[in-house]
């Protein structure tokens, strides 16, 4: 498969392009993302879906610049798909032929069920493991749903309601909200019963924008919208306020200017679907249709799913920035052994071994950027890039452990900005200490076998190694509890 692949998604509201670069068999990372507000569906819904000349011109100009970017990045493979506005347009062939002849770009118009499937594949592979959920992707011309059961997409559904469509048919004509809700509810009656679900995965611009605003209003400590979760009940009044607001009201509520003309429309669709499903948990996905198209090609021999226990962000970071992967796995083995041996002393939940192990694997990635303060480089790498397959709580915990992999332990005031998403300080201190001690015992990178025993408030370390450097370093370490360390 190509090392660099470009994915173009032409929607009713905007055209977007993502360029991915592979780093190993299943791992890759995003190297470019470009968006153009094409508004290809603008004016079409009052004319039987016929695309208007200004919109066609905007689409051509945008795609012309996309192709220049693709050539600059030397992409070896390009996928270009179009959704609702083009599949509804009687004159879609005009644009398709113009693009094919002048830009040598083939646009594939996909149906609503395929669009829903791509979005779900993107979210499913990028988010933490979910047993049951329904994805909702509110676009300009349509809204796509996909039902996930036991980690598999089992059904998809497409509704002919979207933000641009509602805007032109109702909001621009100042129709009462009750009549808009009645129109939406009538369409929602077509959704099969199996889609009813308490957990919604939000895909697309409207729901990501809503999550960003909620994060800002609640002073949420992380900035990454992917993986952000919230209880719908806590924010119903705010969503109601958006639906009922005018333009000045939207500004006061924190809505971005480029969302003024679609935010109310998107939120009223979201309200209606969430009410029908009696949903209570919303999970935001930064991945959607473009990622889904890429993954369907990348994972075409693997049922469009990553292998079991594969974590995209982890593998991608290690591919690009790990200098000592074997040594880090040795540190991981030592740290997990220490966790088990010192269990009577620290009394932490067994589940924390997972985050401790990941922290060991990534503890040195910052060195690639610069040796001095590399623990801080690693902290920021993890905080901003360990997004896929991990919850926000897992990500900030792993980043924090890496930040304090030294002689000192985290202090209350140092972790205060992230306190709401971190475990208690005692747990942080213990996990940080275990990582630091494991790293110290592997200071010479020899990866020799080490045995541990804890008895009578004493940790005994047995090894054939001299551990000359480690002995001196251990004397300087701050321990989270009172116990002795003896090396034999």
Which descriptors apply to this entry?
488 residues; alpha/beta; Nucleotidyltransferase, domain 5; Hypothetical protein af1432; 20 helices; 14 strands
Fourth CATH level, the homologous superfamily of the largest domain: Exopolyphosphatase. Domain 2
Distance between the termini: 52 Å
The chain-level structural class is: alpha/beta
Tally of strands: 14
Task: Report on this structure.
The chain is built from 20 helices and 14 strands. The chain has 488 residues and is an alpha/beta fold. α4 crosses α11 (289-298) and α13 packs antiparallel against α15. It folds into three domains: 4-109, ATPase, nucleotide binding domain (Nucleotidyltransferase, domain 5, 2-Layer Sandwich); 113-291, Exopolyphosphatase. Domain 2 (Nucleotidyltransferase, domain 5); 312-487, Orthogonal Bundle (Hypothetical protein af1432), CATH 1.10.3210.10. 45% of the residues lie in helices and 17% in strands. The protein starts with a strand and ends with a strand. The relative contact order is 0.09. It has helices at 53-72, 84-88, 92-103, 112-126, 163-169, 177-188, 205-217, 236-244, 247-252, 263-277, 289-298, 312-321, 325-341, 343-346, 352-362, 374-385, 392-403, 412-415, 425-441, 468-476, and strands at 4-10, 15-22, 28-36, 77-82, 108-109, 132-138, 143-149, 152-159, 199-203, 229-231, 281-284, 450-455, 458-463, 484-487.
């Amino acid at each position: 498969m190509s090392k660099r692949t470009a994915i173009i998604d032409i929607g009713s509201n905007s055209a977007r392009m993502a360029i991915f670069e592979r780093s190993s068999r299943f791992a890759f990372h995003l190297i470019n993302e470009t968006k153009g507000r094409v508004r290809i569906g603008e004016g079409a819904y009052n004319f039987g879906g016929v695309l208007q000349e200004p919109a066609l011109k905007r689409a051509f100009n945008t795609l012309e610049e996309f192709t220049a970017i693709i050539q600059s990045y030397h992409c070896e493979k390009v996928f270009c798909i179009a959704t609702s506005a083009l599949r509804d347009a009687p004159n879609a062939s005009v644009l398709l032929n113009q693009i094919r002849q002048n830009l040598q770009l083939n646009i594939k118009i996909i149906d609503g069920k395929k669009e829903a499937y791509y979005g779900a594949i993107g979210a499913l592979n990028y988010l933490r493991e979910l047993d049951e959920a329904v994805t909702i992707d509110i676009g300009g011309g349509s809204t796509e749903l996909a039902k996930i059961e036991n980690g598999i997409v089992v059904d998809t559904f497409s509704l002919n309601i979207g933000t641009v469509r509602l805007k032109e048919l109702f909001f621009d004509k100042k129709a009462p909200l009750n009549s808009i809700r009645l129109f939406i509810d009538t369409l929602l009656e077509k959704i099969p019963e199996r889609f009813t679900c308490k957990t919604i995965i939000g895909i697309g611009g409207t729901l990501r924008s809503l999550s960003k605003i909620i994060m800002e209003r609640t002073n949420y400590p992380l900035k990454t919208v992917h993986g952000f979760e919230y209880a719908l009940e806590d924010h119903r009044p705010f969503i109601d306020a958006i639906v009922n607001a005018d333009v000045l009201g939207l500004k006061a509520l924190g809505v971005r200017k480029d969302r003024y003309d679609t935010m109310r429309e998107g939120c009223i669709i979201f309200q209606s679907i969430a009410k029908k499903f009696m949903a209570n948990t919303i999970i935001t996905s930064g991945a959607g249709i473009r990622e889904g198209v890429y993954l369907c090609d990348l994972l075409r021999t693997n049922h469009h799913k990553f292998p079991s226990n594969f974590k995209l962000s982890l593998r991608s970071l290690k591919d690009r920035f790990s200098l000592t992967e074997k040594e880090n796995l040795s540190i991981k083995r030592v740290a997990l052994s220490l966790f088990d041996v010192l269990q009577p002393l620290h009394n932490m939940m067994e589940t924390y071994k997972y985050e401790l192990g990941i922290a060991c694997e990534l503890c040195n990635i910052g060195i690639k950027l610069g040796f001095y303060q590399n623990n801080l480089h690693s902290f920021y790498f993890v905080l901003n890039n360990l997004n896929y397959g991990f919850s926000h709580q897992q990500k900030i915990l792993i980043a924090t452990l890496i930040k304090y992999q030294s002689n000192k332990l985290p202090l209350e005031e140092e972790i205060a900005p992230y306190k709401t998403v971190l475990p208690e300080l005692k747990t942080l201190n213990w996990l940080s200490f275990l990582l630091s001690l494991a790293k110290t015992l592997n200071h010479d990178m020899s990866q020799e076998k080490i045995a541990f025993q804890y008895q009578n408030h004493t940790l005994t370390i047995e090894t054939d190694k001299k551990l000359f450097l480690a002995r001196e370093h251990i004397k300087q370490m701050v321990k989270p509890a009172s116990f002795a360390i003896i090396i034999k």
